Structures are given as structure tokens and as C-alpha cells.
From TrEMBL:
Coiled-coil zones: none
Lineage: Bacteria, Pseudomonadati, Pseudomonadota, Gammaproteobacteria, Enterobacterales
Protein name: RNA 2',3'-cyclic phosphodiesterase
Keyword Endoplasmic reticulum: no
Record bears the keyword Ligase: no
Gene behind this protein: thpR
Cross-referenced InterPro entries: Cyclic_Pdiesterase (IPR009097), Phosphoesterase_HXTX (IPR014051), RNA_CPDase (IPR004175)
Classification via NCBIfam families: 2_5_ligase, PRK15124.1
Species of the source: Pantoea dispersa
Amino acid sequence: MATQRLFFALELPDALQQQLVQWRADCFAADAGKPVAAANLHLTLAFLGEVSTETAGQLQQLAARILQPGFTLDLDDAGHWPRPGVVWLGCQRAPRGLLQLANLLRAQAARHGCAQSTQPFHPHITLLRHAAQAVALPPRGFHWRVEVSHFALFASSFTQGRTRYRRLARWPLLSAAGA
């Protein structure tokens, strides 16, 4: 049976991806960790793992039925998780809409056999991987604001020594007027 490694995520606008890459280069030492490629910067909502074509189709049908307002994401926090070796960018206060969307997608995934982490959802964008040593974090004061109007399903593949993410489907969130 064919499977794909899938996850639901928020895409970042290209301009923001480039700003974050520049900020990362300015704020973190070159040996702090392995930088995530600009095109791979995203905020995971629900990791699905290896999923059959049939299950992927069912999850896409459920995702298409989600009627939730868009929201504003303030990226104003950063941290380092030494055990997984991740340096991340996130939000000091996650918007309710983000938490609701992630919880809904994670619950649907679990009902369809996709194991979900027992850790609380911590919305973040992975900036660096393999950051096992202490990392100096930039001083507070950085801030990017993103208007979130859609979410997407991605496939992850590892080819030629690189991880690549390919968007399979995308769904709109309701506009403020439609909420």
C-alpha cells in the first residue's frame, strides 16, 4: 500500500520566509545548527506521519469542511529545545483561532489512526535543526505579524540528501466578514 509522510501546516508568505532567513543569519552563529531552507519554513498544525492514499483522501475531505475564521499570528518569541536540537520562532500568545484549528486537525487525524503527540501543542516555526549545544537567543523586540487566511496539507520527502515539502491541497479560512 502506497503511503506518504504528511502534515497540515500554515504556509508563510515568500517575503516573510526571506525576512526570517536574513534575521536568522544576522542573529544566530553559523555553527548554531543546520538552517531550514526558506521554502520549508512553515508552522505545523498536525503531523500525520506515513499515511495511506485512502486516509489522506478522507482527511482532505474533512479539512475541506472546516469553517473557521482566519486570524492574526504575531511571531514574537524564540526558543531552543536542546533534546530535539531545534531553534524555533513562535508567538508569546497563540491566537485562539490557531489553537482551535490545530486541535480540530489533530483530533481528526487521531480518529483516522494518525498518532498524535502527547505533548501540548506549541505553535512554532523551526529555524534550525541539529542545535544540540546551547544557543544564544536574540534579545526580545523582534516581531512579525501574519494574517492567516488558509491552511494546507503537505507531503514531506527526503531525496538527494534534502528534505522537500510539497503542498498537496490548500483550504481557505473564513474572512472576518464571513465569520
